[in-house]
Write a structure and sequence with these properties.
The chain is α/β, with parallel strands linked by helices and 442 residues long. It has three domains: 131 residues, HUPs (Rossmann fold); 103 residues, Serine Threonine Protein Phosphatase 5, Tetratricopeptide repeat; 158 residues, DNA Cyclobutane Dipyrimidine Photolyase, subunit A, domain 3 (Orthogonal Bundle). It has 21 helices and five strands. α2 links the parallel β1 and β2. The N and C termini lie far apart (66 Å). The mean pLDDT is 96. One of its GO terms (molecular function) is deoxyribodipyrimidine photo-lyase activity. This is Deoxyribodipyrimidine photo-lyase. Keywords: Chromophore, FAD, Flavoprotein, Lyase.
Length: 442
């Protein structure tokens, strides 16, 4: 396997070579951009760029997500080697990289986040000055942008009517897989190029067990009755695979339509939050409902640190935070509980919690993370009303009555070593209702 010297790069990416730029679609099967590139070209080389603009902002050099991406790329690389081809992996700013490359064309799939949109527009401009086509496709969502709108042409801001229109529009066309395998002979035939190590990217090797890339239909079938209980394996744990595109959204939707409408709704929520981000980009750092930016959040760094560490004295909250810190995953019911606790019990800005989740979650996705946090803070488009304050004790009684989940993550629960609550529930509830009411009245 050869290393890639700078002078060999333009030789490898010659004028007869079409690049497929992989980003949130780390698979060779059922991949829209890859399908069209292979179908329309005879010498296709997949490319992944470890984007230094993103990586340089990651404080944790043992970031599990970088390790997950690296592992996924190694799998793709092995598949391509068997086909006589290779994966090209580069490290740097994509804008700088594309200024040096001169392929026949570049194919990629849409990315909807503000940074990605700006980056892609710049790359497109660079390539157009060199008369190189930049073709992009929908791949990570079933419906995107303006595909599901109200009858008056405006975007939905409430989930239920959006989901009804989504389901009414769905047909076999939108669920159809892209048969990339038909054109695998069109991959560029070349010697395998070695992939940069995590160390060379400035990151550490991580001892981590990632959720399997297996679609467990037995879990999907029981999802509606088991999804709220964090002590049991009642969810598919596919969120990280959806986030990085190691599984196809179309494949999952095909199964969901047949097996479980409640699980299908989870996939629709994903489309919904991406649609909201597309139409209302201000939500990245502001409340969807502007009035909620008037809330005088408490800048309580001491209690925020206790929340981060899982030492609030509320066992279900602490279990969730410790699970997150240890594994990069948190059960969805528990995500709602810990987010409600931070924003309602501690009156701490949802943006603090959102940023912490962004650092820790394996499946971090800007649209979904923002949507979930604004839902909990009641500031979002389709949010819990502000007077809904989750009671962690009642949530525990309903969803972890035998304390199985809690005992797994909080071994000192029930002993003198476990801390007393950092805030009283009744006091906190009265305080938040008064604070929100006064702020919204202004």
């Amino acid at each position: 396997m050869k290393t890639l010297e700078t002078q060999n790069l333009n030789k490898l990416v010659s004028k007869d070579t079409t690049l497929v730029w992989l980003r949130r679609d780390l698979r060779l099967q059922d991949n829209a951009a890859l399908y069209y590139a292979l179908k329309e070209n005879k010498s296709v080389l997949p490319l992944f760029i470890f984007d230094s603009t993103i990586l340089d902002k990651l404080e944790d050099k043992a970031d599990k997500r970088v390790a997950f991406i690296h592992q996924s790329l190694m799998q793709i690389h092995e598949e391509l080697i068997k086909l006589g081809s290779s994966l090209l992996v580069l490290h740097g700013n994509p804008v700088d990289i594309y200024q040096k490359l001169n392929p026949k064309a570049v194919y990629t799939n849409h990315d909807y986040e503000p940074y990605a949109l700006e980056r892609d527009a710049t790359v497109s401009n660079i390539l157009s000055t060199k008369a190189i086509d930049f073709k992009t496709y929908k791949d990570q969502l079933i419906f995107e942008k303006d595909e599901v709108l109200k009858d008056d042409g405006k975007p939905y801001t409430i989930f239920t009517p959006y989901s009804r229109k989504w389901k009414a529009k769905l047909n076999k066309f939108y669920l159809k897989s892209y048969p990339t395998e038909k054109y695998f002979s069109h991959f560029k035939q070349c010697e395998a190029i070695s992939i940069p190590s995590l160390k060379s990217l400035g990151f550490e090797d991580v001892e981590a067990t990632f959720p399997e890339r297996i679609i467990k239909q037995s879990i999907i079938e029981k999802y509606d009755t088991q999804r709220n209980f964090p002590a049991i394996v009642g969810t598919t744990r596919l969120s990280v695979h959806l986030r990085f595109g190691t599984v196809s959204i179309r494949k999952l939707a095909q199964i969901a339509v047949k097996k479980n409408e409640v699980w299908l709704n989870e996939l629709i929520w994903r489309d919904f939050y991406h649609m909201i981000l597309w139409h209302f980009p201000h939500i990245v750092d502001k409340a969807f409902k502007p009035a909620y930016d008037n809330i005088p959040w408490r800048k309580d760094e001491e209690r925020f640190a206790l929340w981060c560490e899982g030492k609030t004295g509320y066992p279900i909250v602490d279990a969730g935070m410790r699970e997150l810190n240890t594994t990069g995953f948190m059960h969805n019911r528990v995500r709602m509980i810990v987010a409600s606790f931070l924003t309602k019990h501690l009156l701490i800005d949802w943006r603090w919690g959102e940023a912490y989740f962004a650092k820790k979650l394996l499946d971090f996705d800007l649209a979904a993370n923002n949507g979930g946090w604004q839902w909990a803070a009641s500031s979002g488009c389709d949010a819990a009303p502000y007077f809904r304050v989750f009671n962690p004790t009642l949530q525990t009684q309903k969803f972890d009555p035998k304390f199985e989940y809690i005992k797994k993550w909080v071994p000192e629960f029930g002993t003198p070593d476990y801390p007393t609550p950092i805030v009283d529930h009744t006091f906190a509830r009265d305080r938040v209702l008064k604070t929100y009411k006064e702020a919204l009245a202004e």
